[in-house]
Design brief:
Number of helices: 14
Shape: elongated
Radius of gyration: 27 Å
CATH class of the largest domain: Alpha Beta
Structural class: alpha/beta
CATH superfamily of the largest domain: MoaB/Mog-like domain
Helix content: 25-40%
Strand content: 15-25%
Number of strands: 17
CATH topology of the largest domain: Molybdenum Cofactor Biosythetic Enzyme, Chain A
């Protein structure tokens, strides 16, 4: 089945908004073993839209359209598609009643322009919109199935789940001889894209399994896609390749699917019944923000301190003034004391600290822009004694990316410590030695 995604709107083509709908639809379609073949965007121009509709019907079996179903003058998807297919527009009274009820529920009077949202091409199947005023619809033309949905991502996502996918699933289950497509996403941190390709050069080179690489700073993603006569067969092929990848890369693979680093850390902390606190200077609270973005984080995140000024490091975290004078705020000894201090302050099992120079200025020949010290303190290790680990890095990236890369490295250290793994990382541009192993 050839699948096409068509997004409509001047704001999309002009780049005024990020077209997230294409990615959302394509990713969700993979859950139904449907792989997108074509993607296109077109202006709110009837002639351009008509050409796009005609081309989609010629070359695709399934077309999902988003945008142009609103009440304003530039929302003309329904009218143009009906004209392209040679169909009249008909009023659906049930849809009109639902639109009126929507406005009554929010205490507003329905504008006359909203009435146009209740008209559909002859023969269309109306798709209810439970969270907005614009219903969608589906039509079939010359063997091509077209679903038209609102462009608002929240409404689109809801209608895909409740209206479109059940209909597609029923068609697929009734079909015979359809190739099933399955995909799985692996998240890695610590190796560049080209190095990953080299490490995996002998994997998924033939057969019905594809391996794709994608960078999403600071991670690199591996997408394994397999085809089979059944879902079970495709899944078995994926399991085999994923097993090979994990054997080759080891702990560089930190998660699958939507599970981000902070979610992995949160799960491990929860499973082990441990708590964490953070002391941040150059990251400005980013580690705390990421940890607390995960539902249920109150079970393991106790608190954080953004100690930007030296006075804050002294008064809140117990960093001695003589240490700051002798080594400077951006140094291994200060990072270690910050991590230990935040542990004591909150009574946490694990303390993480960051101090660095994110730039674009503030560097010196001895301490260049990009330098960062990360420290991890465990109040009580397996043998009962406290453990401390610190590392020095130079991340030669801009200010925003420096903060992101530092926070990701710090979270990865927490992950590794909870798994009992080595904390050093092979390709994170380490400037010098690891600053001392556990217990030093």
């Amino acid at each position: 089945m050839k699948v096409e995604i068509l997004t409509i709107g001047d704001e999309v083509v002009r780049g005024e908004i990020v077209d997230s709908n294409k990615a959302l639809i394509a990713q969700r379609l993979l859950e139904l073993d449907l792989e997108c073949h074509y993607q296109a965007s077109v202006r709110d121009n009837p002639a351009d839209m008509r050409e796009a509709f005609e081309q989609a019907v010629r070359r695709s079996d399934l077309v999902i359209v988003s945008g142009g179903l609103g009440p304003t003058r530039d929302d003309v998807t329904t009218e143009v598609l009906a004209d392209t297919l040679g169909r009249k527009l008909e009023l659906d009274t049930d849809s009109l009643d639902r639109i009126r009820q929507f406005f009554a529920h929010v205490g507003r009077e329905m504008a006359e322009t909203n009435r146009k949202q209740a008209f559909f091409p002859t023969g269309a199947e109306v798709l209810a919109n439970p969270v907005g005023t614009a219903p969608g619809f589906g039509v079939e033309e010359k063997g091509t199935l077209l679903y038209c949905l609102p462009g608002v991502p929240r409404e689109l996502s809801c209608m895909l789940e409740e209206q479109v996918f059940p209909r597609l699933q029923a068609r697929l289950e009734a079909s015979v001889g359809v190739t099933r497509i399955r995909a799985r996403l692996l998240r890695t941190f610590g190796l560049g894209e080209s190095t990953l390709e080299k490490e995996l050069s002998e994997i998924a080179r033939e057969g019905d399994v594809d391996l794709a690489f994608r960078t999403s700073f600071p991670d690199n993603f591996l997408r394994v896609m397999a085809r089979g006569a059944s879902t079970r067969e495709a899944d078995q092929k994926i399991d085999s390749v994923v097993g090979q990848i994990r054997q080759q890369l080891g702990d560089l693979v930190y998660g699958e699917g939507d599970e981000v680093m902070e979610a992995v850390v949160g799960r491990l902390l929860t499973d082990q019944g441990r708590t964490i606190a953070v002391a941040e200077s150059c990251t400005g609270g980013e580690i705390a923000e990421r940890l607390t973005a995960i539902p249920g984080s109150s079970a393991y995140f106790l608190g954080g301190v953004v100690a930007y000024a030296n006075s804050a490091k002294q008064s809140l975290l117990g960093v001695p003034e003589e240490l700051l004078v002798e080594h400077g705020a951006v140094s291994e000894p200060v990072a270690r004391v910050m991590a230990e201090g935040v542990c004591k302050l909150f009574g946490a099992d694990i303390g993480v600290a960051t101090t660095g120079i994110s730039g674009p200025d503030g560097g010196t020949p001895e301490k260049p822009v990009g330098l960062v010290h990360i420290a991890l303190h465990q109040a009580q290790g397996a043998a009962g004694a406290s453990l401390s680990h610190a590392g020095e890095f130079v991340f030669s990236v801009d200010r925003a990316w420096h903060r992101t890369l530092t926070s990701q490295t710090a979270l990865d250290w927490v992950r590794r410590s909870l798994l009992g793994l080595e904390l050093s990382h092979p390709s994170l541009l380490r400037r010098s030695g690891d600053g001392g192993g556990p217990g030093r």
